Amino acid sequence: MSNRPSETILDLTPPRAAERVSYGAEADHIGDLWLPASARESKPPLLVFFHGGYWRARYDLEHASFACQALAGEEIAVWNVEYRRSEIPGGGWPGTFEDVLAALSYLPRLAELYPLDLQRVVFCGHSAGGHLALWAAAQAARDAVAVPGLRGVLALAPVSDLHAAWERHLSQDAVVGLLGGTPADVGDRYDAASPVCLLPLRVPQALIHGTADPAVPFAMSEQYVSRATAAGDHARLIPLEGYGHFEVIDPWSSIWPVVVKELKRLLAAKA
Q1: How far apart are CA 171 and CA 151, in angstroms?
Q2: Which of 86, 94, 100, 259 has the fewest CB atoms within 10 Å, counting from its CB?
Q3: Would the pTM count as exceeding 0.70?
Q4: Under a CB-based contact definition with an 8 Å cutoff, are residues 135 and 184 in contact?
Q5: The CATH number of 6-267 is which of 3.30.70.640, 3.40.50.10610, 2.60.34.10, 3.40.50.1820?
């Protein structure tokens, strides 16, 4: 455990993954692959991770490397996926979302190159990445991408409702940059991109969220889980009393074991 504020994880020099794999032609069509040592003997389950940063270019996949490295130490392979963000040519709508689908479509090839058990897959993301993880599961439920071994979604302080993100003007209206306008301008995009509008996802979902999160309101996860369960999904909210936004991706935080526990619970679920 550490007394260091978890938000300072953004300022630390991240560890380097052993493998960086391209899933497409663009510079940001990459993912860092973290393999547990046991992968030499048996194929580990796979966590597909989407980093946060309110979809903006100044935040890339590297700040999530500490969490990915720690999860690989739990005998779980992690693919930390990069994608084109709002200010990057081709990013935003629809490019960011196309990148997510392209990365997931690459999984069979990834499993040809590295020892991975694609019958045990969980999507995970933090903040805006939590939004992408939930959205990805919605696409799998609609057969827009095939991930037959998907066991569930672990969403860490996710932006699960893009209409509410606009109404609350979160991160200086970051969602406008992602979708190219307000709900009045491009309401169909908000509906198509917002996980809460795409329920049910038809896979288990666990949302972990600090009650004192200053970046993504805890109430958003409360409302999402309520609507998901009403739609027939098995969705759980794990509140972290008094915690903020970054503890969930900080392996030195006191609540990190909660993240690991919920991930392993999802991996143990039936596909």
Answers
A1: 31
A2: 94
A3: yes
A4: no
A5: 3.40.50.1820
